Amino acid sequence: MARNKHPEQTVQLILDTASTLFLQKGYDKTTLQDIIDATKLSKGAIYHHFASKEAIIIAVVDRIGECNTAVLAEVRDKKGLTGAEKLREMFRTAVRLSFQGGILNMLPFLIENPKFMALQMESILNEAAPCYVLPILREGIADGSIRADYPEQLAEVLLLMTDLWLHPVLRPSTPEQVRARCAFFNQFTRQYGFELLDEDLIDTLVGFCRS
Q1: Which end of the chain is more exposed for a tag (fewer CB within 10 A), N or C?
Q2: Is residue 171 a contact partner of residue 156, using CB atoms and an 8 Å limit?
Q3: Structural domain harbouring 14
Q4: Angle 100-125-107 from CA coordinates, rounded to 5°
């Protein structure tokens, strides 16, 4: 059998195709055979790169995450904003990104998958908090728009609250519960000199409550 000279193109094809199918049919209703048929690859070619459909969806979500972090890096590096203003913009961008890219159709499976949740925690604590939120907190402390004695810990708590506790899809909730959590979240952050959730953003979160 001839060696695949462009394995990265094969992986890209598999992930592009799987993303489309997961969007159209949902994760549960998409079979590995569907991906094989749509890519016109052999079963062996698929299994050479991915051991299972679960491995494919984890890779799909990881790729979406890489695209999202590039957007967040632009916000982090933007000039002309105070730390508090930049933090508000980053969280607004992050919330909106979390509802794009087809992740919503995949979440019912992902939130029940221990591997995904472990990767989510690792990403928050080892990448997102120290690389994106912490630099902004330090900017805000320096320019006086943010008050925090423990910026590293605050960066972690803010992301854990928004990504896991506040998210109405990861944690199914009623609109009333989401609004109450948002009110508490704003109350919590006021002690540090900022609020991150305005009414428009709260309405966005409420709009994604699952019945």
Answers
A1: C
A2: no
A3: 1-51
A4: 30
Whether the pLDDT of residue 98 is over 70: the answer is no
Overall number of domains in the chain: 2
Task: Name the DSSP class of 126.
Answer: I
Per mean pLDDT, which of 59-68, 168-177, 183-192 is the most reliable?
183-192
DSSP 98: T
Asked if residue 84 belongs to a domain, the reply is yes
Burial class (CB in 10 A: 0-12, 13-18, 19+), 197: buried
Q: Distance of CA 78 to CAs 66, 87, 91, Å?
A: 19, 11, 14
Tokens matching residue 142:
């320096």
Cα 59 to Cα 15: distance, rounded to the nearest angstrom: 7
Please give the Cα distance from 190 to 146 (Å, whole number). Answer: 10
